[in-house]
């Protein structure tokens, strides 16, 4: 196998460096707050709360991440950026929200209900959504539409919920005022918080931020200039409204409003979002098939290769075939080819819709060059040629 050319559009290290530095810097104060809130009881070191907080807060993380990676199978986003999204949510967004809320409470004297139902949703959704807006400005070429927006929003939300759950769980165990019983090690209160936050509603923060992600995705693909501005703002506004409704419900009927909101609002909203995301995922195959068929008619890609790119089962079959006959290098070549074809498909779809990005020609040529260079080094299973 020959050397595999890399995608030049992914070579911009500035975004990764800047965001990575922000994550590292923000992690220091956040970790300090977490340790103070969960490891110190009556001026004595008691690390049990912190340890239990981390362990139990981590329970929903892996299933949620896997679910978003499953949604992202057609055109997998760079793992480094998905990790940065998690880090942004866990540290940068948490730090920003805590600073704004603390300073605001000190200067404006916000009451606890105001903090919970208004200030927290506004600041936390802004802090989480900022990652998506930075992506839109700096790495716009990585966003192909609504599904990408949902995936990145999900990663940020998972990270934010993880840190927040550590604070709640550890604080409850240690009897932090406002979070649980006054005696340390109150397992009953700890269990209630774990069940409510980590088992019943681990999807809350990813769900809220998904509305901002949808707005960002619409802004990327729409041909209407006004919608490019309105969609992200509207998405953020809905995220704040959903978050505020969720938080505010705990203030109603001595806390019983939480259960009402969970059944009437949160579960239907979650089911609807899941159904929408799955529908968008299924539509990806239709979009890519149409786009690559047109690209094949223009001589940009062999028509017989389309099925091995857009059909997920056949795509995996082709990779196994490449592994058997070409080893690790063969799999790398196959992945490179399939990824280049997918990228070309999404880019060409925007061209067909009349909304190509400014760098359409350069990016398109780069993808076609990658396809042409890698194609001689791969082979698909014989006798099983797919045609979309």
From TrEMBL:
Signal peptide extent: none
InterPro entries xrefs: PrsW (IPR026898)
Domain of life assignment: Bacteria
Transmembrane portions of the chain: 15-37, 49-69, 81-110, 116-138, 150-170, 203-222, 229-246, 258-279
Keyword tags: Membrane, Transmembrane, Transmembrane helix
Any one GO MF annotation of this record: peptidase activity
Family matches, as Pfam families: PrsW-protease
Protein name from the UniProt record: PrsW family intramembrane metalloprotease
Species for this entry: Nocardioides luteus
């Amino acid at each position: 196998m020959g050397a595999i050319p890399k995608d030049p559009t992914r070579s911009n290290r500035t975004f990764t460096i800047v965001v990575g530095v922000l994550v590292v810097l923000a992690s220091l104060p956040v970790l300090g707050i977490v340790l103070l809130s969960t490891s110190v009881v009556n001026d004595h070191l008691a690390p049990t709360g912190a340890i239990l907080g981390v362990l139990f807060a981590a329970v929903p993380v892996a299933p949620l991440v896997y679910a978003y990676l499953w949604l992202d199978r057609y055109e997998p986003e760079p793992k480094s950026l998905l990790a940065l999204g998690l880090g942004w949510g866990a540290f940068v967004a948490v730090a920003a929200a805590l600073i704004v809320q603390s300073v605001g409470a000190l200067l404006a004297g916000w009451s606890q209900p105001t903090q919970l139902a208004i200030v927290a949703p506004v600041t936390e959704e802004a802090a989480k959504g900022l990652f998506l807006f930075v992506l839109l400005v700096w790495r716009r070429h990585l966003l192909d539409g609504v599904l990408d927006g949902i995936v990145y929003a999900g990663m940020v939300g998972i990270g934010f919920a993880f840190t927040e759950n550590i604070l709640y769980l550890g604080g409850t165990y240690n009897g932090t005022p406002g979070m649980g019983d006054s005696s340390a090690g109150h397992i009953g209160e700890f269990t209630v918080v774990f069940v409510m936050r980590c088992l019943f509603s681990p999807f809350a923060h990813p769900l809220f931020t998904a509305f901002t992600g949808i707005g960002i995705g619409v802004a990327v693909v729409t041909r209407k200039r006004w919608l490019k501005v309105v969609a992200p703002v509207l998405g953020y506004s809905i995220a704040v409204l959903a978050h505020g409704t969720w938080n505010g419900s705990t203030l109603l009927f001595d806390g019983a409003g939480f259960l009402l909101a969970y059944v009437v609002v949160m579960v239907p909203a979650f089911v609807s979002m899941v159904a929408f995301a799955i529908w968008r995922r299924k539509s990806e195959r239709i979009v890519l098939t149409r786009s690559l068929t047109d690209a094949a008619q223009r001589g940009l890609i062999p028509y017989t290769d389309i099925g091995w790119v857009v059909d997920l089962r056949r795509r995996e079959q082709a990779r196994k075939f490449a592994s058997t006959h070409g080893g690790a290098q063969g799999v790398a070549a196959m992945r490179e080819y399939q990824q280049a074809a997918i990228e070309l498909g999404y880019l060409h779809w925007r061209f067909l819709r009349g909304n190509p990005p400014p760098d359409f020609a350069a990016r398109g040529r780069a993808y076609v060059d990658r396809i042409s260079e890698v194609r001689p080094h791969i082979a698909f299973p014989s006798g099983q040629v797919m045609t979309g």
